[in-house]
């Protein structure tokens, strides 16, 4: 088996999906799924039951044997956010590792959103053409709906709603048996959850196109039979389907569409949820896609491997997400862009000193972008507010640890000096604390270079000398305030890197 071939496994709320993919060509050698309804356990009892764990073990062992039969050694196994919603998820994760040898990595909601975006960017037919107008990607799993917006062919924003059909069904199941019109009650429940999302949508932006994807949409393969992986339907056509489903009995749906009892129970909340979303967005065209989170893992891995089959920038959506967060909290764009520019220049020109890589450079760029968002709450100790806002926000594509690192870098970029070794951050390991310290030191220097908030510095030359780091700048005005600020903030740089940093500048006449 070639080195370029990799295995992927996703433990979702109702299925364990897997694939073996050649990253050079993005062609799947094998793909399949095993039904394991952990979502029913989680939404009913908040825990994964022992019988379900046994089913998971059998599925993973079968998949593992298949991977070995193909000679695949590199296998990525992830658990969806739904899996880790279970109160006993960490125990189950340990049990799965001891019984199968497979390590299940957790995904945050923002990571799931990132991988779904990668899936449509890499695999959805004519994606660039479709998204020239406003388009919303709606990924519906059993427990949640992830909405990702595109405008002018580019990523806009992402929001997660705890509003999957199985969750709706479990919440509403008791009520459905006691009210005369359960459809209206379910509709009102869904609308109440959509209200805040609609309020946060950008003003004056129309979304005529909707792309539906996700594991919960498997019911549509029975409701709208087709030989294609992607189905297009207009709003009137979907309205007819909605009217049929909302007036049909469970027995009719089961017999008419050959559905299992579990599938039948999810038809109404799934169709109702999609219809209310389409109506709220006032969309005209709907694409129902078979793309899943699994596809995003494949596309991202191929992109990171430098595959010519994928022509996307994996970091692009992450940086747009950070910029959107900065704009939401009204960060000064001129100071933000200045800080980002010179933080990255320092990173690139001092690589021999810090020894960090591409991913750490991305974290620095994100931190420099969002570092001042806390000023929206209060300019006094704004860095403290930045810390908790970043931790509570959805920064697409970051792991939970990376998001915590970005928040900490923002927390310490200002005058609040941390312990030099950051040993108080016990939730982060020593390697991550070292990365935080190195990036914080660089960000402090970049921030100090615009202490006046007038962007006086036009050009910078970085010289790594035996006894110091010398910054020689060309500026449009006097830089004494910047020099003073660097002396203050540069102390942490010297503590981290073992060299003082000095500013030498001349004013352009």
TrEMBL record:
InterPro entries: ATPase_NBD, GppA/Ppx_hydrolase, Ppx_GppA_C, Ppx_GppA_N
Occurrences of domain Ppx/GppA phosphatase N-terminal (ranges): 30-297
Residue ranges of coiled coil: none
GO molecular function: pyrophosphatase activity
Gene3D superfamilies linked to this entry: 3.30.420.40, Exopolyphosphatase. Domain 2, Hypothetical protein af1432
Domain Ppx/GppA phosphatase C-terminal, chain residue ranges per copy: 321-478
Organism superkingdom: Bacteria
Cited PANTHER family: EXOPOLYPHOSPHATASE, RETROGRADE REGULATION PROTEIN 2
Family: Belongs to the GppA/Ppx family.
Name by which UniProt lists this protein: Exopolyphosphatase
Source lineage: Bacteria, Bacillati, Bacillota, Bacilli, Lactobacillales
């Amino acid at each position: 088996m070639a080195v370029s071939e990799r295995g992927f496994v996703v433990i979702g709320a109702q299925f364990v999906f897997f694939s073996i993919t050649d990253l050079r060509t993005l062609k799947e050698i094998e793909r399949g799924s095993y039904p394991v309804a952990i979502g029913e356990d989680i939404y009913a009892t908040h825990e994964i039951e022992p019988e379900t764990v046994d089913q998971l073990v059998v599925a993973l062992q079968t998949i593992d044997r298949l991977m070995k039969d193909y000679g695949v050694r590199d296998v990525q196994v992830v658990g969806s956010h739904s899996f880790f919603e279970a109160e006993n998820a960490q125990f189950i994760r340990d049990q799965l590792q001891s019984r199968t040898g497979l390590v299940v990595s957790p995904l945050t909601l923002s990571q799931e959103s990132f991988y779904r975006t990668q899936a449509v960017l890499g695999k959805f037919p004519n994606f660039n053409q479709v998204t020239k107008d406003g388009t919303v990607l709606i990924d519906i799993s059993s427990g949640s709906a992830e909405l990702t917006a595109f405008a002018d062919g580019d990523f806009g924003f992402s929001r997660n709603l705890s509003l999957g059909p199985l969750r709706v069904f479990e919440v509403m199941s008791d009520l459905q048996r006691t009210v005369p019109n359960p459809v209206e009650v379910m509709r009102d429940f869904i609308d109440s959850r959509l209200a805040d999302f609609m309020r946060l949508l950008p003003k004056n932006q129309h979304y005529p196109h909707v792309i539906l994807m996700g594991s919960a949409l498997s019911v549509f393969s029975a409701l709208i039979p087709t030989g294609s992986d992607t189905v297009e339907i207009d709003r009137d056509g979907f309205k007819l389907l909605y009217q049929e489903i909302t007036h049909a009995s469970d027995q009719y749906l089961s017999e008419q569409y050959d559905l299992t009892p579990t599938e039948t129970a999810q038809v109404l909340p799934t169709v109702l949820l999609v219809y209310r979303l389409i109506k709220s967005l006032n969309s005209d065209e709907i694409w129902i896609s078979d793309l899943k989170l699994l596809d995003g893992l494949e596309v991202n891995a191929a992109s990171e491997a430098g595959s010519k089959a994928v022509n996307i920038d994996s970091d692009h959506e992450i940086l747009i997400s950070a910029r959107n967060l900065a704009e939401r909290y009204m960060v000064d764009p001129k100071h933000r862009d200045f800080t980002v520019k010179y933080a990255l220049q320092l990173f690139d020109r001092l690589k021999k000193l810090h020894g960090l890589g591409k991913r750490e450079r991305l974290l620095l760029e994100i931190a420099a972008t969002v570092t001042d968002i806390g000023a929206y709450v209060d300019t006094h100790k704004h860095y403290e507010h930045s810390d908790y806002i970043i931790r509570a926000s959805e920064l697409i594509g970051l792991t939970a640890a990376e998001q915590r690192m970005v928040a900490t870098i923002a927390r310490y970029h200002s005058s609040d000096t941390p312990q030099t070794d950051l040993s108080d951050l016990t939730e982060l390991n020593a390697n991550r604390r070292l990365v935080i310290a190195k990036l914080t030191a660089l960000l402090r220097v970049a921030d100090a270079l615009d202490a006046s908030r007038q962007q006086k510095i036009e050009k910078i030359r970085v010289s790594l000398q035996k006894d110091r780091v010398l910054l020689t700048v060309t500026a449009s005005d006097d830089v004494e305030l910047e020099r003073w600020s660097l002396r203050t903030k540069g102390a942490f740089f010297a503590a981290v890197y073992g060299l003082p940093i000095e500013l030498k500048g001349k004013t352009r006449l």
